[in-house]
Amino acid sequence: MAAAVGRVALRWPLAVGRARCLTASCRRMSSEPREELKVRNLDGEDSGIVVVGINRPKAKNSISRNLVHLMFDAMEDIKKNNKVRSVILCSLVPGIFCAGADLKERAKMAPSEVGPFVSRARALITELGNLTVPTIAAIDGAALGGGLEMALACDIRIASSSAKMGLVETKLAIIPGAGGTQRLPRAIGVSLAKELIFTGRVVDGKEAFRL
């Protein structure tokens, strides 16, 4: 066990360092077929790093039923692969990380469908947070609502200075429904988290780092 922990400790700085250069890597993935989720297992010196790229350009990477299904499948594959040592969550769409729930899709749901969908989306983000390998959110663009909740579920968030982040649900007369009210206070403190959640204020990467 001690030897295994030592190997992880030695490799971990490499995973963090590679995350700082992820924008170009993620964009290269987008030249392949335009699937809603693209999972890439890196090789060579990056072997063991899995890059999960969200790719819904027309919907600003919003969280749909299909995306939730695909991400659950990806999480299951990651859990079964004992060679995975780090997971990087990023976007393949320039200027957007994830705009939150797909409200256009939700508007078409029957009332009886909304609750189960929200519960499954919440379970997905919990599953992401429970992965037993380090997870990194590479935020290059807007991470709003459920998008920020996904990033908060990761162990580390690396963002561009121009990134936009916020739990904006109160502007829609709802509350963050996938753990944001719990994870944001743990990251920045209760008072600041309340202010951001109550007002729905959006901050850029520089302010998010300061907070």
Automatic annotation (TrEMBL):
UniProt KW keywords: Lyase
UniProt name for this protein: AU RNA binding protein/enoyl-CoA hydratase
Pfam families listed in its UniProt record: ECH_1
TM region(s), chain numbering: none
Stored PROSITE patterns: ENOYL_COA_HYDRATASE
A GO CC term assigned to this protein in UniProt: mitochondrion
A GO biological process held by the record: fatty acid beta-oxidation
Record has Lyase as a keyword: yes
GO molecular function: enoyl-CoA hydratase activity
Family: Belongs to the enoyl-CoA hydratase/isomerase family.
Superkingdom in the source lineage: Eukaryota
